[in-house]
Each structure stands twice: as C-alpha cells, then as structure tokens.
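#data-curation
PF: Archiving a pair of folding outputs for the training set. Convention for this channel: one message per protein, sequence first, structure tokens after, nothing in between. First:
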Amino acid sequence: MKRLIIVLTMLFAGVAIYAQEPQVLVLKDGTVIRGEVEKLPNGGARVTNEYGDIFEYSAEEVSYAGEELSERQMKKQQKTANVRDYAAREKGYNLFVETGVGVGSQYQEEWYNHPNGGRDMRGVEYTAPALTLNVINGYSFSQYLYVGAGIGFHMSGLKAAYIPVFLHLRSSFLKKKVSPFVSASGGYGIQAYGGGFNNPFIDGGFGVCIKKKTKGEVWLSLNGTFVVDFYNGVAFKVAYSF
C-alpha cells in the first residue's frame, strides 16, 4: 500500500509538471531561456531551466517574461525589443569627446617688407589644414534634444590656433540603431597663438549617429565653421558620447 501511494504521488506530480504551461524568458540581447519563470517586483525576472539552474536578470536586461511564444511572436518580440532599446535614450548627463580634420581659409595679419624700405602690417589669406578637439558637457532631455557647453582647441596649419568656448545643441531624429542628426554650436574663439583674433564663431553640422544598446553613441558628421575675421572651413568630425 505504501509503495502504491508513492507511485501515485510521483505520477500525479509528473502530470502536474507536464500540464504546466511552458514559459520563456527573452533578453534584450536576443537570448532565449525556457523554464519556470518568476517575475520580480523590480521588473526583472528569475528563471529555473530544465536542469534546475536558476538565473536572475534585471529589468534593464529583460525584454519578455511569460508564456511560450510562437515562432512568429518570438521574432516580433525580439524586433520590438531592439527598437525599444535603441529608442529609449536615457535622460541625464552626457559627455561628448569630439575630434576632426578639415581644411579652410584663414585670415592673418603679417608684417610686409616694402621693396623700397619700410614695413607695415597687412592681412594675408591662405588655405590651411585644420585639426579640432572638443569636450562637451551637457544634458540629454531626450534623443531629440541635447544641450551642452564645451571647450576645445582648433589649430589651423602651424601658424595659428584658438580655443573655442561655446554652447552646443544636438538632435537625432530616428528611433533606430542608425539615425541622422544635426548639431549647432556658437561661442567665442580665444587666440592661443599666432596672428588670430578673439572673435565670435559658429559651427554647424549634419551626419549619422550610430547607437549602442548600452549607453554610448558614435557620431560622424560634416561640419562648417566660421570665425569672424579669422577662419572659415569644413571638417569631418568623429565624436563619442557616454
């Protein structure tokens, strides 16, 4: 009788396990884990797989937790998770480090020696390669609006350089991994060395933003820069935000 009770207990337990609805946990990186899924109060989930191993994931890692999905539903869920992950740019502080190379026309005053003697100061305009480096600190209100303030170093050829101090705006448009964006800066250029000027400047650009699932983006752009009575040119820039 005792053996019969044990056998029946095991049989009923097996039937109960078999009758339980299959469950699945889908992570944002595409990982799929099947087993007994428990949703946690903080938005995360805990799953026990068929071997009894227990795994726990935070809300930031979980895309879906619940009953088993059909193949079509699974693909749709993973696609939705990817879009949501790229679109949900976090609000808060962002630091940009930006560098670029370009070419432009620079105006500089130099001493001119007259053939018959004497000398005076004259303006000379010449074409020169340019290097830029900017650091921008600011706040992202959403993926559509970033407002910051920056400082940098701009060298035009080997004869002159200035330090730009500026306000900066940036906006990306699409909720996808790759999105077009525009940027604009305005401020003041402080002469570092050479025959430059301490004058206002503006910079504007457009390009593409390559988003990561974790925090951080790569920004590639073509920019135009104009410094009053000193420099105007174009540059290809690469920036990383984190």
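PF: Second:
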Amino acid sequence: MKKVLQIVLGLAIIGLIYVLYNQFHTPISFQKEVAVREAAVIERIKDIRTAQQAYKQKYQKYTPSFDSLINFILTDTLSFERTIGSKDDSVAVARGLVRTEKFDIAVMDTIFNTRGLSRADVQDLRYIPFGDGAEFIMDAGDFETDSKVIVPVFEAKAPYKIFLGNLNKQEVINLIDDAKTLDKYPGIKVGSMEQATNDAGNWE
C-alpha cells in the first residue's frame, strides 16, 4: 500500500511540474511566435503601402483592388524630371541651354529597387504571411476632413485570428480581447478609411 501511495504521489508531482511548466512556457513561446509572424506581416504590409503611395503619385488616388495594384507594379511606369544644365548659370539660361526633361522608369525598378523583390514576390503581396492563403483586407476611397477637405485614403489589415489562428486558441483570444479593450485594431493595420492618418501603421 505504501509503495502504491509513493507511485501515486510521484505521478502527481510529475503532473504538477508539467502543469506549472506549461503555465510559464506557453505564454513565452506564444509571444516569440507572435513576434516572428507580426514581423513578416508588417514587412509585407509596408510593401503594400509603398505600392499604394506610388499608385497615388501617378493617379492621385489609391486603389482598393490588389489586381490593379499588382498590375501597376509589374507593368506601369512612374514619371520623373531631370534638369540638363544649371539654373544657377545665368548665361546658360539666357542661351536656352538649360532645360528640363521628363523620363519614365518602370515602377518595379523604382519603388522596390532596394528590396530586391521578384515578380513572384509582387504577386504574393495580397497574401497574409502564415494566413493559409487568406488575403489582406484592403479598401480605398475618399475622406472628408473637419475642414471639409477631401483626401484620398486607403487601409490594409490582417486580423490576428488569420495569421495566428493555428496557435494556442486561448492566448489568441486574450490578445484580441486586450486590443479591443485598448480600442485598437486586433491585428496589423496600415492607413484608415475613417480618418487621414498619412498612411501610418498601428505598429509605428
């Protein structure tokens, strides 16, 4: 009987150690994975913002369509100007030797030239990392400010429940509840359809 009690007690101790380990380990490992996934989502949503800003530079508006945005990146151009000669040289100006030239460069070679994105990377802009094929929620339109000025706006967002969906369910619920309590979007978001934010992200 004594030996049986020792075995039962030993198993109970092992079980308690396991429970305590999970209580401490689960939140820590969860936060580490959240940080990795958020970083990937933020990097991609920044690329979406860069593309939208270039689109607005050319068309004076944002687009709500990923098809239009991706096609713009892969096939369109941006116009630039360069000055031939120096405007500070009065003699050259007087002789008409100073002039301004316009030239076009492919969008892909301008906005992403330092990122080194491939065409396949651009095609994947619509997809949320770790989202199992889910797309960013994106919209665009106009917003009227308090001073009655109409400004173009856009937003793109990725809910926690999409890119954290296969992690610890209770931890995800807690993260979403915390965001809602603080009146924040429960996920990663850039821009807003409800106010002019200068295309700021909620992680910045």
